[in-house]
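> example.struct
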């Protein structure tokens, strides 16, 4: 995985996810970690791929921390990026709403999103769900 240095150059790091902690190493088989990030309260955001001048395509994802700081990580293929996003989401307890509800038609629109009719899959209860587009939100809004 890569990170961008302040001057914009990519630096390669190795990461290890243990529980809800992401450990960073400078070298692949290093014993001592360079840093650690707690993933408690973190939001994961897949970013659009980036094409570099040399023709290399990067596949980034961003971790947004509770203090509104964000870090972007880059991988060389979409499959590897998607796998990292998946395991991080599992570690932080992220759940997809469609696991629990059958989402139906629009029934209204509010300031922050659309309201949709839905049916709870287990109880078969009819409910209204507000769908908010997090990709368009700022880190402070995500925290709220």
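> example.seq
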């Amino acid at each position: 995985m890569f990170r961008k240095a302040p001057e914009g150059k990519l630096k390669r790091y190795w990461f290890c996810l243990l529980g809800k902690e992401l450990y960073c190493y400078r070298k692949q088989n290093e014993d001592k970690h360079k840093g650690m990030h707690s993933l408690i309260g973190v939001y994961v955001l897949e970013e659009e791929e980036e094409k570099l001048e040399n023709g290399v395509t990067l596949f980034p994802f961003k971790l947004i921390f509770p203090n509104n700081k964000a870090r972007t990580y880059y991988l060389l293929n979409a499959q590897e990026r998607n796998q990292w996003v998946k395991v991080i989401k599992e570690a932080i307890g992220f759940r997809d709403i469609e696991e629990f509800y059958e989402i139906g038609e629009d029934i209204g629109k509010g300031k922050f999103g659309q309201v949709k009719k839905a049916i709870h899959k287990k109880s078969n209860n009819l409910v209204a769900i507000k769908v908010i587009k997090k990709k368009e939100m700022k880190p402070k809004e995500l925290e709220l």
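> remarks
Residues 51 and 57 are 4 Å apart (CA to CA).
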